Amino acid sequence: MPPKVRELIAQLERAGFINRDGKGSHRNFVHPRVSKPVTIAGHLSDDAKEYQLRAVKSAIEESRK
Q1: What CA dihedral angle connects 34, 35, 38 and 39, to 10 degrees?
Q2: How far is the C-alpha of 34 from the C-alpha of 45, rounded, in Å?
Q3: Read out DSSP for the chain?
Q4: pLDDT tens per residue across span 9-61
Q5: What is the bridge-based pairing of β-strands 38-41 and 26-30?
Q6: Model-level pTM?
């Protein structure tokens, strides 16, 4: 079973990302060491999509460099 959108958001926040807000159900997370913002779409209880999992993992890895 895929993780929920709320779990991805929690991972980003633990890694030091800041929510810049967005429109509707979109949220933009930024980090000083990451070149692009990470956009997470969906309601908190929605299942996360595979591309969202990849984007979060990639951004967290980039923030650790």
Answers
A1: 160
A2: 26
A3: -PPBHHHHHHHHHHTT-EE---STTEEEEE-TT-SSPEEEES-TTSBPPHHHHHHHHHHHHHHT-
A4: 999 999 999 999 999 999 999 999 999 999 999 999 999 999 999 999 999 99
A5: antiparallel
A6: 0.93
Neighbours of 29 (CB within 10 A): 24
Helix axes 5-14, 50-63, angle to 10 degrees: 0
Rounded-to-integer distance, Cα 59 and Cα 13, Å: 12
Q: Alpha-carbon distance 11 to 15, whole Å?
A: 6
Whether residue 56 contacts residue 62, with contact meaning beta carbons closer than 8 Å, is answered with no
